[in-house]
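Recap quiz, item 2
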Amino acid sequence: MFFANQFGKYRAIVISVAMFIFLDTGVLGLNFYISSQIAADAVNVNLAGRQRMLSQKSVKALLEYRYERQQGQSGRAAYEEMAGAIQLFDRTLLAFKAGGETLDTTGQPIYLPAVETPKAISAVDQSLTIWEPIRTDFNALNKGGGDMEQLLNRLVSSAESHNLTLLKLMNDLTNDLEAVAKEKSETLRLIQASAITLAILNFFLILFHFIGQLRQSDSIAETARKETTEILQTVREGLLLLDNNLIIGTQHSESVRAIFGDQEFAGMSFRSLLHNLVVGRDMSTTEEYIKLLLNEKVKENLIGSLNPLTDVEVSLPAENGGYSVKHLSFRFNRTIEDGHISHILVTVMDVTETIALRKALDEAQQSNGLQLDALKNLVHLDTRTLADFLRETDIALHEINDTLKDEAADPQGYNAKLQNCFRIMHRIKGDAGALQLPQVVQEAHQFEEQLQSLQKMSGLQGSDFLPLTLALDAFLRLISDLQEVSDILKQVQPASSAPASSVSEPEATPAMPLPLAPQLALLDREPITQLAERIAEEQSKEVNVIFDTDDDLALPDQQRSLVQSSVIQLVRNAVVHGIELPEIRVLADKSPVGRILVRVRQQEDGLRISVRDDGHGLDLDAIREQAHSNGLYDQAELESFSRTRLMGLIFHPGFSTADNVDEHAGRGVGMDLVRSNVNKLKGRIRIGTQAKHHCEISFLIPVAASMPSEEVDVMNTQSDAEARV
Amino acid sequence: MSKSKEQDTIEVFIDSVSHFYQQMGLAEMEIGVPYLLDSNQPIVSDFTGIIGISGRHRGCVYYTCPKAMLSYILIALGEKDVGPEHLGDLVGEIANTLAGNARKTFGSDFMISVPVVLQGEPDKVSLPKNTRCVVIPTKWKYYQSIIVVALE
Amino acid sequence: MKRLMIVDDSMVIRRRISRAHGLDAYEVVGTAEDGANAIELARETLPDMITIDLTMPNMDGTEAIPVLASICPNARILVVSALSDKATAIGALASGAHGFLCKPFTDEELKSALNELAED
């Protein structure tokens, strides 16, 4: 299995090494073979040499034997020597001829192969031809009998005549055998040398090829290592590997150092890395979690939500020596090798900034606190006026909440809700404008804008109101913040410093307790004048508000505020819709400064409050057109309307002839508010107008309605009120 | 005007309840016009599932509805036993859904308690004092129920 | 067709799982409302897949899981629970479950969790 897998990679080296071994063994084998051949050849050459010696020895012994016999001696020793030499010669020569056994120089039997070269064969054959008669004669001599003398003489003469020839033949044989042996050994040496050369070449091939390959793979590995290091050094996340004993591996990203401080991580346990950062049960939970990841049975995708270390708040040593609080987020992933989980890759992210940013964003959204500018505005106000306004606004906002709460599932119901909210909010905005509370005006303006975007929405649903409900909550919070400020102001502002707005009312006695402060004038003039002047300025108009009221007149708080807010709307309406631009006024032979007269009169049947401007009067055609384009009535109906009824349309909810929607006009809510206020006061509205000349809108508060039973005491004459003190 | 975080939070709760209805294969729930409620006077119906929230935001969220509605739903689901145990189970699961979705959406910003089911017992609903809560009226068939989000 | 057993003390959740859309590949072979009943039911039905809650009366999920795993060793066990205590959930998984699904879940989430478990 291992070999099959790895063979591909190392194929070349395996083949090369096998070749090397093969060549080496070949050379070794050859060596054996050559040495054995050389040894065999040496024996041949030796024995051939011995034949030379034997031929001479036998001739010498023969001559000695004859001499000794001629001397009459037995010649036994010479004969024995001759017979031995002849027999050995004969035996060896026959072995050279056909292959056979003979005795070597030590007398041991040895096998000789037949000679093979033509030279040697002919030498042996010629020797045999010469030798045969000699052997025959010797054999006869050896047998004995016959004429020994004659036989011996013949042998001697034959030996003498052939001695040299035989010696030469044996010499030739020896020389030839020597030459063959030399040739053979040279060939074998050549082969051996080639094999050794090949083996050496192969060795160098292996050496160079593999050194090259090793170098190449080393450089690839080095590049890869550099890249890995580079990645590990630059990546922002802390990356490290855990083995299945939760021990940290050798490599990790540089950020790990930045997060956990400078130390040796390799070989450290994960637990000691998190020592002090994650403690107690959390640590064991984390370890359990990692073990789950190491468990092949459990699905990695299905346990991500259980990671206990998604947000860890830690105190880490900072560069400047102290400690800094950081938020770390850990992620754990399996690394798979050969289809098995080999390690857990831990990714550590510093999410401190993200979390801080989120927190800051939350806080920015949550802090709806008062701005300094708003506070400055408050200080200028009469505390009582402010307190009244805030109390009424609070009530009004709760009224809006009640409106939201009222059950109404159908779209018509929703629209009615919106209309009602509009009316209330518009009054708040008017009052706030009059008191110069820009923050409240702004809040109210935004609320109105939300209301309007809801009105435009088709298929309005309950959930669409949620932003509105939340805006209402924010508004209520603003008011309660302002109330707190107002309470503080009440304590710091001496009652005597009653504001300039109440010049027309009697000076308050400092000794008087605040809740039972002196009877207020029916109208708070200052805010009305200021509002008129501010709007006029914004619209590039000039205006002068004149009050004609009886300072003795008074109403209970609730009614007074209804009258006040109605007058504010009427004055606003007069500036926006009545008074012309100065240049137009001049052309119409009027003073460039528009004049608005606010009058309060005690009549027999009640109090009449009127607001009259010397502007261009009501434009009935414009009203008709607007009513038509608003879809309130069709053309024919409008034609049939009386003048009075037509004029009455300006009090219709949502009716407005102003071109642009701004803070002051155009939503068609102001006059609707007046009507609603007057209804609450059980009064009646009257409109008088003359084109290009004036417009006067007044309402009468009947005596009965202006004196609700529970309020009688308070709203009685000034002297009565004083009497109660 | 951008959607505020507060609005997102409340919408998560509204969506939780309406998804619950959807996933149980029930008719769609209608959402009414949300309004404010003084936290000193909590409104509860017959059955209430309530989850407490602590951490960076504190308070609670609850869903309360009449018994008749729960019985109707159980019957619609094919359950014959409409005893208080099963009714409570149903409200409990709605509260569980609220808790789970809040955990998923807000992560560690919200620490959310295990839901508690109440039968009546308005005095056991403790809302953070002196804050206004947002009440989201809902309607299923002809039954009214409400989601109340009270966060400081 | 994989044979699915649902274990949860809440009737609503049992119904919720058995009625979830897109689970055509699973046949609900039984439901149990606590660990003890689940074990009995598992012996009878030998399910391929089990969804199990952790907090239940009588015998909770953490106790029941190892027993269920020994009764049907080839069954895939999915813990379906609210994420109120990660340590308990991790412990339950370590005792023989194969995956975790957080309550509340959508049909899609349930389906992909079961499919992932059924894969091998």
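Chain B has a mean pLDDT of 86.
The helical segments of chain B are 5-23, 67-76, 84-106.
End of item.
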